[in-house]
Protein backbone atom coordinates (compact mmCIF):
# COMPACT_ATOMS: atom_id res chain seq x y z
CA UNK A 1 0.00 0.00 0.00
CA UNK A 2 1.30 3.48 -0.88
CA UNK A 3 0.81 4.74 2.68
CA UNK A 4 3.18 2.10 4.04
CA UNK A 5 5.92 2.66 1.48
CA UNK A 6 8.84 4.88 2.51
CA UNK A 7 9.61 5.51 -1.15
CA UNK A 8 6.32 7.27 -1.89
CA UNK A 9 6.67 11.04 -1.33
CA UNK A 10 3.47 12.12 -3.05
CA UNK A 11 1.87 15.20 -1.49
CA UNK A 12 -1.45 13.36 -1.07
CA UNK A 13 0.21 10.39 0.64
CA UNK A 14 2.19 12.70 2.95
CA UNK A 15 -1.04 14.52 3.99
CA UNK A 16 -2.80 11.21 4.62
CA UNK A 17 0.10 10.01 6.77
CA UNK A 18 -0.16 13.18 8.89
CA UNK A 19 -3.91 12.73 9.30
CA UNK A 20 -3.41 9.12 10.39
CA UNK A 21 -0.70 10.14 12.88
CA UNK A 22 -2.92 12.81 14.44
CA UNK A 23 -6.01 10.54 14.46
CA UNK A 24 -4.85 7.01 15.40
CA UNK A 25 -8.48 5.82 15.64
CA UNK A 26 -8.86 6.05 11.87
CA UNK A 27 -8.45 2.60 10.34
CA UNK A 28 -8.10 1.91 6.65
CA UNK A 29 -9.44 -1.30 5.14
CA UNK A 30 -9.46 -2.59 1.61
CA UNK A 31 -12.97 -2.89 0.23
CA UNK A 32 -13.87 -4.76 -2.90
CA UNK A 33 -15.32 -2.39 -5.50
CA UNK A 34 -18.90 -2.42 -6.78
CA UNK A 35 -20.37 -4.94 -4.32
CA UNK A 36 -23.10 -2.81 -2.76
CA UNK A 37 -21.20 -1.50 0.27
CA UNK A 38 -22.65 1.91 1.13
CA UNK A 39 -19.33 3.68 1.87
CA UNK A 40 -17.74 2.22 -1.24
CA UNK A 41 -20.60 3.38 -3.45
CA UNK A 42 -20.39 6.83 -1.90
CA UNK A 43 -16.65 6.94 -2.65
CA UNK A 44 -17.33 5.81 -6.23
CA UNK A 45 -19.94 8.55 -6.63
CA UNK A 46 -17.52 11.18 -5.26
CA UNK A 47 -14.81 10.01 -7.66
CA UNK A 48 -17.23 10.14 -10.58
CA UNK A 49 -18.35 13.66 -9.63
CA UNK A 50 -14.72 14.77 -9.39
CA UNK A 51 -14.23 13.93 -13.07
CA UNK A 52 -16.79 16.56 -14.08
CA UNK A 53 -15.02 19.43 -12.30
CA UNK A 54 -13.60 22.16 -14.52
CA UNK A 55 -10.51 22.56 -12.38
CA UNK A 56 -8.39 19.91 -10.72
CA UNK A 57 -8.20 20.67 -7.01
CA UNK A 58 -5.34 18.33 -6.18
CA UNK A 59 -1.76 18.48 -7.41
CA UNK A 60 0.10 15.29 -8.11
CA UNK A 61 3.80 15.86 -8.62
CA UNK A 62 5.45 13.96 -11.41
CA UNK A 63 8.13 11.68 -9.94
CA UNK A 64 11.70 12.53 -10.85
CA UNK A 65 12.26 8.92 -11.96
CA UNK A 66 9.44 9.25 -14.52
CA UNK A 67 10.96 12.48 -15.91
CA UNK A 68 14.41 10.84 -16.15
CA UNK A 69 12.92 7.82 -17.86
CA UNK A 70 11.05 9.99 -20.38
CA UNK A 71 14.19 12.03 -21.13
CA UNK A 72 16.20 8.85 -21.65
CA UNK A 73 13.51 7.43 -23.92
CA UNK A 74 13.35 10.66 -25.96
CA UNK A 75 17.15 10.78 -26.20
CA UNK A 76 17.30 7.17 -27.43
CA UNK A 77 14.55 7.80 -30.00
CA UNK A 78 16.31 10.91 -31.35
CA UNK A 79 19.66 9.11 -31.37
CA UNK A 80 18.10 6.16 -33.24
CA UNK A 81 16.52 8.50 -35.81
CA UNK A 82 19.87 10.26 -36.38
CA UNK A 83 21.67 6.91 -36.57
CA UNK A 84 19.25 5.58 -39.17
CA UNK A 85 19.36 8.68 -41.38
CA UNK A 86 23.06 9.55 -41.10
CA UNK A 87 25.20 8.92 -44.19
CA UNK A 88 28.19 8.31 -41.90
CA UNK A 89 29.33 5.03 -40.36
CA UNK A 90 27.29 2.81 -42.68
CA UNK A 91 29.70 -0.09 -42.11
CA UNK A 92 29.05 0.06 -38.37
CA UNK A 93 25.32 0.54 -39.03
CA UNK A 94 25.40 -2.75 -40.94
CA UNK A 95 26.56 -4.42 -37.72
CA UNK A 96 24.58 -2.44 -35.15
CA UNK A 97 21.28 -1.15 -36.54
CA UNK A 98 19.91 -0.34 -33.07
CA UNK A 99 21.52 2.22 -30.74
CA UNK A 100 22.32 1.00 -27.25
CA UNK A 101 23.77 2.74 -24.20
CA UNK A 102 25.03 -0.54 -22.76
CA UNK A 103 27.16 -1.62 -25.72
CA UNK A 104 30.76 -0.58 -25.31
CA UNK A 105 33.89 -2.11 -26.79
CA UNK A 106 37.00 -0.83 -25.08
CA UNK A 107 39.38 -2.78 -27.27
CA UNK A 108 41.56 -0.61 -29.55
CA UNK A 109 41.78 -3.11 -32.43
CA UNK A 110 38.08 -4.00 -32.31
CA UNK A 111 37.16 -0.32 -32.35
CA UNK A 112 39.37 0.24 -35.40
CA UNK A 113 37.54 -2.56 -37.19
CA UNK A 114 34.06 -1.44 -36.10
CA UNK A 115 34.65 2.20 -37.04
CA UNK A 116 36.76 1.34 -40.13
CA UNK A 117 39.30 3.86 -38.86
CA UNK A 118 42.99 3.41 -38.30
CA UNK A 119 45.30 1.50 -40.58
CA UNK A 120 42.81 0.64 -43.33
CA UNK A 121 43.78 2.23 -46.68
CA UNK A 122 40.24 3.50 -47.33
CA UNK A 123 40.38 5.45 -44.05
CA UNK A 124 43.93 6.64 -44.73
CA UNK A 125 42.69 7.87 -48.12
CA UNK A 126 39.83 9.85 -46.50
CA UNK A 127 42.11 11.48 -43.94
CA UNK A 128 45.49 11.83 -45.65
CA UNK A 129 44.74 11.39 -49.36
CA UNK A 130 46.76 8.16 -49.59
CA UNK A 131 45.77 5.43 -52.02
CA UNK A 132 42.61 3.58 -50.92
CA UNK A 133 43.76 0.38 -52.63
CA UNK A 134 44.96 -2.74 -50.85
CA UNK A 135 48.54 -3.88 -51.44
CA UNK A 136 47.17 -6.96 -53.23
CA UNK A 137 45.86 -4.71 -56.03
CA UNK A 138 42.52 -6.52 -56.25
CA UNK A 139 40.27 -4.18 -54.26
CA UNK A 140 40.12 -1.19 -51.97
CA UNK A 141 41.54 -1.70 -48.48
CA UNK A 142 38.31 -2.01 -46.53
CA UNK A 143 37.67 -4.05 -43.39
CA UNK A 144 35.55 -6.53 -45.37
CA UNK A 145 38.27 -6.94 -47.98
CA UNK A 146 40.97 -7.66 -45.40
CA UNK A 147 38.80 -10.14 -43.51
CA UNK A 148 37.07 -11.93 -46.38
CA UNK A 149 38.86 -11.24 -49.65
CA UNK A 150 42.55 -10.39 -49.42
CA UNK A 151 44.83 -13.25 -50.48
CA UNK A 152 47.79 -11.56 -48.74
CA UNK A 153 46.12 -12.21 -45.36
CA UNK A 154 44.57 -15.61 -46.20
CA UNK A 155 47.27 -17.39 -44.17
CA UNK A 156 46.49 -15.21 -41.15
CA UNK A 157 42.74 -15.81 -41.47
CA UNK A 158 43.25 -19.58 -41.82
CA UNK A 159 45.56 -19.67 -38.81
CA UNK A 160 43.68 -17.40 -36.42
CA UNK A 161 40.03 -17.30 -37.44
CA UNK A 162 37.53 -20.13 -36.81
CA UNK A 163 36.95 -22.54 -39.69
CA UNK A 164 33.43 -21.17 -40.33
CA UNK A 165 34.55 -17.52 -40.40
CA UNK A 166 33.10 -16.99 -43.90
CA UNK A 167 29.65 -17.66 -42.44
CA UNK A 168 30.15 -15.29 -39.52
CA UNK A 169 29.38 -11.61 -39.59
CA UNK A 170 32.19 -9.16 -38.81
CA UNK A 171 30.94 -8.64 -35.25
CA UNK A 172 30.75 -12.39 -34.51
CA UNK A 173 34.19 -12.81 -35.97
CA UNK A 174 35.92 -10.05 -34.03
CA UNK A 175 34.22 -11.07 -30.80
CA UNK A 176 35.42 -14.65 -31.24
CA UNK A 177 37.90 -15.01 -28.36
CA UNK A 178 40.54 -17.01 -30.23
CA UNK A 179 40.46 -14.78 -33.28
CA UNK A 180 40.59 -11.66 -31.12
CA UNK A 181 43.55 -12.79 -29.04
CA UNK A 182 45.49 -14.17 -32.00
CA UNK A 183 44.86 -11.12 -34.19
CA UNK A 184 46.31 -8.95 -31.42
CA UNK A 185 49.41 -11.09 -31.40
CA UNK A 186 49.73 -11.05 -35.19
CA UNK A 187 49.26 -7.27 -35.36
CA UNK A 188 52.12 -6.82 -32.89
CA UNK A 189 54.45 -9.11 -34.82
CA UNK A 190 53.61 -7.69 -38.28
Automatic annotation (TrEMBL):
It comes from the Eukaryota. Residues 1-52 form the RNase H type-1 domain. GO terms for molecular function: nucleic acid binding; RNA-DNA hybrid ribonuclease activity. This is RNase H type-1 domain-containing protein. The lineage of its organism: Eukaryota, Metazoa, Ecdysozoa, Arthropoda, Chelicerata.
Amino acid sequence: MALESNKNHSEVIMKLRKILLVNPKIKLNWVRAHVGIYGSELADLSAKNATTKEKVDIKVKIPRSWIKNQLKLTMLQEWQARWMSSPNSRFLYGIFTEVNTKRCHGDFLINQILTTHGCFPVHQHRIFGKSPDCQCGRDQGTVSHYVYGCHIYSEVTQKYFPKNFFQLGILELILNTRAKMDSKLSSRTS
